[in-house]
Amino acid sequence: MILRPRSSIAFKMMILVLGGTSVVFGVILLYSYYSSRSFLLEESENNARNLTQYVARRIEQEFRSVAKATESLASFLETAKCDEETLLTLLRRTVLRNKEIYGSAVAFQPYAFDKGTRAFAPYYFRGKEGLKFEQLGSDAYDYFTKDWYHIPVVLKGPVWIEPYFDEGGGDIMMTTFSFPFYERDANGKKGELRGIVTADVSLEWLARLVSSIRIETSGFCFIISETGSFVTHPQPKMIMRESIFSLAEELKDPRVRHLGRAMIRQNSGFVDIGSLPPVGEAFLAYAPISAVRWSVGAIFPKSELLADVTALHQQTVLMALTGMGLLFLVSLLVAKSFSRPLRRIAQATVQVAGGNLDINLSDIRSRDEVGQLAQAFTRMTEGLKERDFIRDTFGRYLTKEVVNRLLESSDGLRLGGEKREISMIMSDLRGFTALTATMHPEQVIAFLNRYLGRMVDVLVDYRGIIDEIIGDGILAFFGAPETLEDHPARAVACALKMQIEMDQINALNEQDGLPRLEMGVAVNTGAVVVGNIGSEKRTKYGAVGSEVNMTGRIQSFTVGGQVLISEPTYNKLADILDISDVLQVQMKGVPGAVKLYDVAGIRGQYDVHLKRQEEKRILLSQKINVAVQRVDEKTVALTEASAWIDEISASSAQVVLAYEINQWQDVKLLLLDDQSRPSAGEIYGKVVSVTQVGSHYVANVRFTSVSPEAYQMIHRLEQAT
Question: What global pTM score does this model have?
Answer without folding.
Answer: 0.47
